[in-house]
Amino acid sequence: MKPIEAVNDFVVKFANVNGSGSASANQMFAKSILRMGVPATPRNIFPSNIQGLPTWYEIRVSEAGYLGARGGVDLMVQMNPQTWNQDVASIVPGGYLFHDSTRALPHGSLRSDINVIGVPLTQITSANYQLARELQLFKNVIYLGVLSALLDIEPEVFEQLFAEQFKGKDKLIAANVQAFKLGRTYAQEHLQCPIGLRVRRSDKVGDRIFVEGNSAVGLGMVYGGATVCAWYPITPSTSAVEGFTKWATRFRVDAETGEKKFAIIQAEDELSSIGMVIGAGWNGARAFTATSGPGISLMQEFIGLAYFAEIPAVLVDVQRAGPSTGMPTKTQQCDVLLCAYASHGDTKHVLLFPRDANECFEFGAAALDLADRLQTPIFLLTDLDIGMNERLVAPFAWDDSRHLDRGKVMTAEELEAGREFGRYTDVDGDGIAYRTYPGTHPTRGSFFTRGTSRDRKAIYTEDGAAYQDNMERLLRKFETAKSYVPTPLRKDAAKPTKLGAIYYGSTSDSMEEATEILAADGVDIDLLRVRAFPFNKSVDDFIAAHEQVFVVEQNRDAQLRTLLINEGDLNPRQLVRILHYDGTPITARQIAGQIRTSLGLDKAAQKEAAE
Amino acid sequence: MTYLPKPKLHHPELPKNDLGYTRRDYEGSISTLCAGCGHDSISAAIIHACYELALPPHRIAKLSGIGCSSKTPTYFLGASHGFNSVHGRMPSVLTGAAAANRDLIYLGVSGDGDSASIGLGQFAHAMRRGVNMTYIVENNGVYGLTKGQFSATADRGAKNKKGATNQDAPIDMISMAMLLGASFVGRSFSGDKTQLVPLIKAALAHKGPAFIDVISPCVTFNNHEGSTKSYDYVREHNEAVNFLDVILGRQEITVDYSPGSVEVVRQHDGSLIKLRKINSEYDVNDKIAAMEYVQKHQSKGEIVTGLLYVDSDSQDMHDHLGTSSTPLNAMDDAALVPGSAALAKLNASLR
To answer: What is the complex's ipTM, to 2 decimals?
Structure first.
């Protein structure tokens, strides 16, 4: 057996017990690699549990900058006896197993094709600490010390990270550095350091930031001017509201009076949270809710009302597998159709598909502008992979000359000057009518908001012609939306090709990496990353320009493909499903494997697809 | 229809309130409810109350759910923005609206189907959240638009039009409102304008969740022998604890009443509620006693009406949330957007 030798290109996975304080140690490990100038991408794999069940933290180290999940484990940091067998089995041949050797290994459970590194972590910890919480937390820091020696990570990097994390608490800094040194010294004295996997200082991180998508959504809502947030707790969206709370508290509390320029209301259920968002939007405040698929299911009736009554609202859907408990802590892109056609009657909605935290921020703020400009619900479709993992992304940017675009709102001055107001009158031909905020003018501009039974002046009518007239205007508005939403991004292969691929959201990193794998095999693919629905015309053009287009997504029913066929009136045979939906993030190898299989290429492809 | 169409022109000497508006300025379009519907009397009482309080009509937002009662906001306050929302969900829409602009006056109109069945949860949570609103339930014990099914406020043993008896226990929204944190709770009867108009006025002047249950007979489906929500039944079983007057500003009370028969409650906006007690023992500030009184009389088949409970030091949702005194919907970019310099600093902290 030949041990794996790799510099700045490997996968480390931590197997821990939920609630043991491992999360912050593991995050620090990921950050230490970033501080060495090497891109690293962590992913949380966690159960529906608060304490006691297994949890994993997987980090892909990639100097080449691949941020998608890779598959396979080169170094397993095994700290949870419950999952010993499956963890050991997941290590690639020639890989490494780091475990706590205080207690004897289970019999007959070791492979001969991996390298086993035992450190008596519990023994070292209990020799140095007494308090129960210390025993637990410092054990994690001790393994960081061991890993720094095994992987050749500069200890100064960790010392700096401790100093930042515990700023102002000198005692804690010293205690953590001491625990770290315990581990590092033990490794240097007892083990062969470094092992075949090494981190070498580089400069590939650049000015990128390391942040979770949900936190970025919350920040986007602050920058986009949201003042009302109504929500109901649901994994994996809860931290988006926590993000909004954190950033709003930092940026929107009056320094003198302590008054808040925002209102966050935890509702009794999702029906109520969307109702509050719609009430606030009707009344001229920017409002959003964050939820996941089951929440969108519950909001259906209100979404229809907002569509027909034309009320701005932003819904963040952090997608996950569903329903119930368990799979909902796993990622999917499974709410595309649910959101696109949400509610009763003929409805269609604007969807935005951010690829990462940077776009969560950008599209989050943009969603609030779009909601006001289009006077309709806007869905920001992220997922657990984007939302609940820290990722290396381009820094957030904001143009100070940008203004919050409130869309067509008639003011008291305009009404006073005698400007004609008809709430549902399409004066500009773009399908978008003027609205007024309640309380604007003593005698002009008031109207009664209801679903569909009204004419262009918002007067009650059950006349079929008036209904149809309004429905056609709503279609015109949807047409207008095509030019307002983020455009698709195209990236052509080096050589002309008849093959194309369409993808979106969290599939992006793996798709782009897969293209490189396939190009090396002589399979060239042009790429189109769809960033919004309704689809821009360039999507149809892209499909028309290719014989075969792979539609790559993380759900069972090829939902984006269905939407493309339905809205674009396309030939289904031209669009090939490339799907992954077991709850783990899609990998480049899986995509490349499925595409090769679909093209009838070699058997090796099938083998890789199975990985 | 209850009203004959009235021309928009009116007599030049029609009295005007302090804002220069006549009563006609508080009207809406013509009601499409059945002739004699209790709900129309409530609409008339709302018009009357708003006129007498001299509220600027456009500063009132009227919201409702779905049902006969929820149709009524079209029939009053034509110069106000209105919102006919989703069945049972008026409270959440109103809560969001109130969060967005704390300066408007919020009037929520609902029915017993809308609030006691499908919307029971939203009713409860709006009360406990302290939303500053007047919440009127036009309570007739039946579903009208779907032709006479029992609602959740129908009394056990009450008969429907076809003679079937309701077997389920009724939901008592008055007791629930008190229990859940409403800071103003009253009950009245659509047929008793002298009691209802001042009750609505006091509720509109109240800060915090003000809940009024108005028994409002359905002339088509629930006004027969055996109904406990008919005009005759309610008149016979009405157990009023007080009558009230609302006095704006800080006028002295000069009229003399015999000791113990008048109580004055000052609300946070300075308005005074002058209660003429019918039951001298009844204390509107004692929630627990009020709940006991209501329950005791209810068990005897009596309908307790009047101002039942008021907390004159009440707070509202904005106090709880600590929101800015400037309405959130009036804030500009400078107040809301932190800008690029703050973002650069934030980026640096994420490396």
So the answer is: 0.94
